[in-house]
Amino acid sequence: MMFSLLKKLVPAVMIALGLFVFQTLPAFACGGLLAPDGDVRLARASTLVSWHDGIERYFTSFTYQGNASNLGWIVPLPAVPIKIEEGGGWTLQRLSRETHPQPVRFAAVASSAAGVEDSAQVLQQVKIEALNITVLRGSGQEVLNWATSNGFFLNDDTRAHLLIYAKGSPIFMAAKYDTAAARARGQLTGDGAPILITMKTPHLWVPLEVLALDGQQVNADLYLLTDVPVNTSDLNVKIGQSAVGSQIPGAPGLQVAFQEKMSPVLYHDLSSDRNMSWVRSDSWLTYLSLDAPDAAVTYDMGISPTGVIRLAPFGTPPMAVVDGQRSRELPRWVPGLPMGTPQVLLWVVILLGSVGVLFLLARMVGFPKGDAGLWTGSRNAQE
After folding, report:
1. Beta strand 131-137 with 121-128: parallel, antiparallel or unpaired?
2. DSSP class of residue 20?
3. Hey, is 373 helix, strand or coil?
4. What is the distance, to the nearest Å, from the Cα of residue 126 to the centroid of all Cα atoms in its chain?
5. 195-200 and 55-65 as β-strands: parallel, antiparallel, unpaired?
6. What is the side-by-side strand order in the sheet with 205-206?
7. CA angle 378–381–383, rounded 5-degree value
8. What is the pLDDT of residues 227-270, one digit of tens each?
9. Is this prediction's pTM over 0.90?
10. Closest CA to 62 of 50, 76, 73
């Protein structure tokens, strides 16, 4: 939910770690949590992902239930971040209120372990509240080596997922959440630091499989800010039909629950939050709700230039989630109707189009016979 939001919770023996899904700023909200004693549970993931003119922003925060002295996670990224900073203080809560109507600073972080042979390259290190964040580049094995040498405990399941994700992207974000430091800051148990990540990407991408924590129901809120309305099919885009209330094909439990053009009030509330001045007044807000068993969430998500949701197995290169499915798009010359076209008008257009097609077919079938008759008659007259 750059729905919020996103990582893979796996029991650990010493320190926490997990996989999380990213693609646009609003995503790092849940997922990838790992507690030393395995008693931490992810409550709900909330993520905001925005894309405009080649820039994706991924904003997320997570809540958890349980006790642990140290938590961490590793998240796949589609590109090297331009910036990582503290996210807004009320943005995710304001988006929740909008879609559920009711009656930074940067600081250098010292590495906790010396580099090892065949270890991933450290690209960036920052500290946000109680989170120590490191951006890495490397193969799956190199990232595993770095994580091991820096105190992350990785079980076999987490290792396998990380190696699969590394086939699609060599960029990862590793974060270690210090609950002792959080308590010293006065943060409540279960509260996470809001993270805003800015990246250059051809289109929006969100890793969702990392939200699937073993044996747990996946509950996530994903908010999207896009230039065009998000939809579930190319046909719906062409005929101007809203996707609100629709399930995403191939993704049980994932549905478009809310959508609207950015209102002046919402724009003011979001853009005035901390580090959120980039929010655009002409964006479309779409809210996706995910409620599914962990075994059903095996995919990542992208958004095509026309606003169509595309899914692909996790580990697919981030941009290939959309680019690899271009053949499914309808030809650009096919005329389209504006979003929100009434169904009555749509049926009228379909009826008129059908009548027009039948009329053309009748003429095509009738003309040859008429021509043949005229030609025969003319020939007889000459004889």
Report:
1. antiparallel
2. -
3. helix
4. 23
5. antiparallel
6. 205-206, 299-303, 309-313
7. 115
8. 999 999 988 888 888 899 999 999 999 999 999 999 999 999 99
9. no
10. 73
